[in-house]
Amino acid sequence: MAVIKDFAGLAEVQGVAQYLLVKKDGSTLATNMDSPGLLAVTVVGCGQHCENLSGAVGGQNYIHLCLERESGDNLMVFSLGGFYLGVISESSTASQMVVSNVISFLKTIN
Amino acid sequence: MNYSQVIPDIVSSLPEITGAFLASPNHEILIDQAAHIFPMGEQQHIAETLYAVHSLGSSRFNNITAVQVGFHSLNLCTRILDDGNQLVVIHRPELSTSMLKMTVQLALNSEQGDGDAPVQATVEQEPVVEIEEDDSEADLALVEELLHSDNDLSSLLNAIRDELAKHIGPVVELVFEDALPKWAKNGGAAKERLGELIPGLADELETDADRVEFERDIEKILKQE
Predict the structure, then answer these.
(1) Minimum CA–CA partner of A59 in chain B
(2) How far is A18 from chain B (nearest CA, A)?
(3) Of B119, B30, B25, which Cα lies nearest the Cα of B81?
(4) Which of A95, B153, B174, B188 has the fewest CB atoms inside 10 Å of its own CB, making it the most exposed?
């Protein structure tokens, strides 16, 4: 079973610059950011919006969200049951690669 | 711009692109090439939701160029165009982001008749609410102390955790590591206060039936001790 300290391994995942694990109430459980508070609100808000899309796509749950930025350091939000995982990607790594790497990592700790 | 040509061009450009539609700034569907994918009326809901995500992201970052949401069998990608309209493209997950970006840009440029890239429209920003951060390291140490076999409460706490795991699976550790410190700090970790821990854990369950079953099973555990 995943424990919070397992998520520290995200910092070593290729393409992940920063991460934060938040509860749906916005409280941060794990992060390598100095001040994750405001981003936690964004992560939760974006995740909740995406969950509202489920009915439109045949009941599928969303897997990831990517807010693409000109600078390439994208914000990604993954749905983890009662939690959301926010990731800021490294601009040098393609977003699809980061998504794939993060999902592979999550499978290893579950 | 003549979107009635652009949207079909995008849809027909790659086999991985299965549909697209254009919504106005007030989310009215202007051109629809995705009616075969979604139940009637869902395009407007999708447009509104993706726009809200774009707005929320823009409240934090000022250079959002696109929003992409991935599902098991399809991805939704949206861009706010220079005239404020919203383009939504539906494609299979295997299509690379760079290929999609290039395809959309080519279709837009060919209709514009020049090489200028569309300019980001300004989107409304949602209010940002600041929240307090957790003292995660101290909390984790407290959890480890409470669950350690030397602690008198460890067997009961582990039994409660195992019961919760039956309902929520692998994330039980996360829930427990969040709830336990709050409970312990708010009145002390004592056997007679275990009943106060349970409602917070039960709140993590999705249905009333799950909550009732969980609380009933926990009651049995506490009575056995």
Answers:
(1) B71
(2) 15
(3) B119
(4) B188
